[in-house]
Design goal:
The chain is of the alpha+beta class. The chain contains 16 helices and 15 strands. Its EC number is 6.3.5.-.
Length: 492
């Protein structure tokens, strides 16, 4: 159903559940390493494999990280909370239950303000609770990579037991046509906050941060909530936006056709931009939650909570607004900087001595282009903020121009050394010696007598053609300013 028709007939309601893998050294309830990758099932023990008699112990660092996340989201921090068993059978959780929190989360009643196109939406946080991640299933054979049609399945339990914080919003209503953008902006802003806290790498491509998108539609103006679907494990900001938009259009088409929405989980397909049915969505009672008998309650003291509050960094959104003003960036310039993933790199480059405009110029032109062309994260190009400062210093000193600087960056990508070493090895330094420049100027005048006559007649602007000829002869390494001076000295 066309998006505009959806908005004319229905009001959307969003709900977002974001799972954050913490960067603790060990898992949530055992001493196994909480690292990404590795030989399948090498990072396991009787506890995370759920073997009989194995007893869990709560990871104190994970509790600390949970509290810091809750404080940053303006949540209340429970004085007393406990874990529960979420019972279900699925091969990626060998205990047949997940140790999570149910009616007693460690963080609750928070909020985050999100701005979209100049309008602020308050996203209310219902809860942020601690739990453990599941293992990873690999379905071999078949066309889709899913269990249906697969020849057999393998399970890697290295991820089982890694600490997770699940952040759950209350229904977000009133966003209307901006609902997809609000969802994207919330997840992006939440990721920025998590990274600033230093509690997770929050890399969506590695599953450190995963978003589940809940959506429902209700008749326009009814003030009710419709039946929701939950699109699982959406792994990019753009996909969050696309999944919301697609589900709004899919729901509306079903409702307009007289059908009803099935409460279910759905899978997002990045290649086709659609969702497909997963399984009927269970309600809380279906999981038969009950308090975890093998773990004592968690009771963070108020003194500890306030101590952790003092460790919170500046809110990333407020920090961006402050730095934008200090740097003199327009809204569009700042938006492009953030969108390119270069905000932190530009900040470090300015702190290392570059001007805001020069830092932004190199990271958003040369470096962002290279990252885009090669499909590489901009931070993984092998160029540091110190390198950018050094290149700009060579330009300011008259040793390079922008064209030659791009060749220096090529050398940096290839690991050829420092900017100064690359300039020396490649012979890139600008020539300002009057002897060499004078010869090139004489050659240009001799080759372009008509242009020389125009300059003699007072048409100084024509000097640009001779400057270009000199630059070409000297492979771009001439000091253009000095070349102009020599041309005018000889012809005027």
């Amino acid at each position: 159903m066309p998006f505009d028709d959806v908005l004319a007939a229905y009001d959307p309601a969003l709900g977002l559940e974001v799972h954050v893998e913490l960067n603790t050294a060990s898992k949530m309830f055992c001493g196994c390493p909480a690292t990404f990758g590795g030989e399948p099932n090498a990072g396991t023990c009787p506890t995370c494999l759920g073997l009989p008699g194995a007893m869990p112990v709560v990871n104190g660092k994970a509790v600390e990280s949970a509290i810091r996340i809750g404080l940053a989201l303006n949540c209340e921090i429970a004085e007393w909370c406990r874990f529960a068993r979420k019972n279900y059978f699925y091969p990626d959780m060998p205990k047949n239950f997940q140790t999570s929190q149910y009616d007693e989360p460690i963080c609750f009643d928070g909020w985050m303000d999100v701005e979209v196109d100049g309008e602020t939406f308050r996203v209310e946080i219902e809860r942020a609770h601690m739990e453990e991640d599941t293992g990873k299933s690999l379905h071999v054979g078949g066309a889709t990579g899913r269990i249906h049609g697969a020849d057999y399945s393998l399970v890697d339990y290295n991820r089982a037991g890694i600490p997770l914080i699940e952040i759950v919003t209350r229904p977000i209503q009133g966003a209307g046509e901006k609902a997809p953008e609000v969802a994207k902006a919330y997840v992006a802003q939440l990721r920025d906050l998590i990274v600033a806290l230093g509690v997770s790498e929050a890399r969506m491509d590695q599953g450190n941060l995963r978003a589940d998108v809940n959506l429902s539609l209700a008749p326009k103006g009814s003030g009710t909530l419709g039946t929701r679907t939950e699109t699982k494990n959406v792994n990019s900001f753009r996909s969050v936006e696309r999944a919301v938009r697609y589900e709004m259009q899919r729901h509306a088409a079903i409702l307009d056709g007289g059908g009803s929405i099935l409460q279910e989980t759905r899978h997002w397909h990045e290649d086709t931009g659609i969702t497909t049915s997963g399984r009927e969505k269970s309600d809380a009672e279906d999981y038969r939650y009950f308090p975890e008998p093998d773990l004592v309650p968690v009771a963070p003291s108020r003194e500890w909570v306030e101590e952790l509050r003092g460790t919170l960094p500046e809110n990333p959104t407020a920090k961006r607004a402050r730095l934008q003003q200090e740097w003199g960036f327009t809204d569009l310039e700042m938006r492009d900087t953030v969108g390119a993933g270069a905000f932190g790199l530009v900040e470090e480059t300015i702190a290392a001595g570059a001007t805001p405009q020069s830092a932004r110029k190199w990271w958003l032109s040369e470096l962002a282009r290279r990252a885009n062309d090669t499909g590489t994260d901009i931070a993984a190009l092998g160029v540091t903020p110190a390198d950018v400062v050094a290149v700009q210093a060579l330009i300011d000193a008259g040793s390079l121009n922008d064209k030659l600087a791009r060749q220096v960056f090529e050398g940096l990508y290839a690991g050829e050394g420092t900017p100064a070493e690359i300039v020396a090895a490649r012979g890139l330094a600008i020539v300002s010696d009057d002897g060499a420049l004078g010869t090139a100027v004489d050659n240009a005048i001799a080759a372009n007598p008509d242009v020389a006559d125009k300059i003699r007649d007072g048409k100084v602007a024509a000097a640009g053609a001779l400057i270009g000829a000199v630059m070409k002869e000297m492979r771009g390494q001439a000091d253009a300013g000095r070349v102009r001076e020599l041309i005018l000295e000889k012809l005027t």
